[in-house]
Amino acid sequence: MAWVLKMDEVIESGLVHDFDASLSGIGQELGAGAYSMSDVLALPIFKQEDSSLPQENETKHPPFQYVMCAATSPAVKLYDETLTYLNQGQSYEIRMLDNRKAGDIPEINGKLVKSIIRVVFHDRRLQYTEHQQLEGWKWNRPGDRLLDLDIPMSVGVIDIKTNPSQLNAVEFLWDPTKCTSAFIQVHCISTEFTPRKHGGEKGVPFRIQVDTFKQTENGEYTDHLHSASCQIKVFKPKGADRKQKTDREKMEKRTAHEKEKYQPSYDTTVLTECSPWPDTPTTFVNNSPTPAPTFTSAQHNTYSVPDSNSSSPNHQGDGTSQGSGDQLHPSATIQETQQWLLKNRFSAYTRLFSNFSGADLLKLTREDLVQICGPADGIRLYNALKSRSVRPRLTIYVCQEPLRSIQLEQRQDAGSTDSNGAIYVYHAIYLEEMAASEVTRKLALAFNIPLHQINQVYRQGPTGIHILVSDQMVQNFQDESCFLFTTIKAENGEGFHIILK
Length: 501
Known about the structure:
Layout: H1 7-13, H2 15-26, E1 64-68, E2 83-87, E3 91-98, E4 113-121, H3 124-128, H4 130-140, E5 147-149, E6 158-163, E7 166-174, E8 181-186, E9 206-214, E10 223-235, H5 239-253, H6 256-259, E11 269-270, E12 272-273, E13 285-286, H7 334-343, H8 358-362, H9 366-373, H10 375-386, E14 394-400, E15 427-431, H11 436-446, E16 454-460, E17 466-468, H12 471-475, E18 481-489, E19 496-500
Helix pairs in contact: 9-10
């Protein structure tokens, strides 16, 4: 795929005339809220003296035009492709413009089209190894995506979808007759794919490519209409602004004769026509909380709101809340495990865990899940899996001594019965925290004692001494220890103390 358009190729193919014609077509009425001619005045087009081409060399008029609201670099040679600097994670608007002439592609009138936006490599060498490069990036940045759509900022986009296996692409539907803007965020930086880490200016260039399709008779959006792309470099936050300023200062120092060899910086970047991306899109995950509609009518919502129960914009759930009884058991089959993932808002990972049974999933450690799903969803999945079997850190058994104050030596065989045959009933106290305050709180709950009335908790030691129960003492309790306790009034008469025996 030849990305850089040389001037002789442009003259032969008649693309200069197309650019001139596309400008004249932008001003046509695009529907309510459409962009006017003033929105795209600063377009990186070729010189007008080259537009006097024979009419027979005209190519097909491009049906759409995509304009990214980011300035082009001034340090680009006159006939080279434009280069645009972007900041990592910053939202950039791509305006989706209907550029059709009257009567062009009438079959999409009143219907939606689908566009897929990708960030791909510009260098052919990296294109050949794209899968390996992206897998390496995914390993170093678990849970992150190369490209995201800023849904709250976007306008006119419908049925937004992402694919967990395609971290560099997003797709959506839109109406060409309505004002549509897709705000994208690129999270990879150019230096992440260079063997040696220099600065952003030494990083590899990427491409933003938009492929648009119309609906076929079977309802699938696979009939290709148009593709366009532009060259970009991505810097760490604020790095693109510094690079743009540096290029501008360098150009200001050049002579007037040298400046003629370079194209000016434009406020916006027009994506130039190219071949469609060869990869056929696979199944995408729906990011909308409602089922995907059948697109046969012009009546549609023009904004998809993400599920408020979702953990992140990249992985939206299906809105099904988890009931308290929804637990994944080791005996769960693969199908039951898939259903559990969907119910608990892990739909983005159903394909990844498509061959996992309940036992397989429960065997994964916290570190395994963080590595597979990323920190946020990995920890959430780990907690969801382990919440069914949260074990206390310590269990003790406590019984309140009868008011008649049975002597300790009267207990028989670890306090099972007294000399009169009375049964001692013990309460199990489960401690999630190994702290004295946790013991006090659990005793108050188990025996209906007002917590504010308990001043101190002591343990009866050798020769009947009272030892203050501290965090360190609790940490040295043996699991499943048994205690009798009595209460004595505090010295000041306010509240009482608990003594564990």
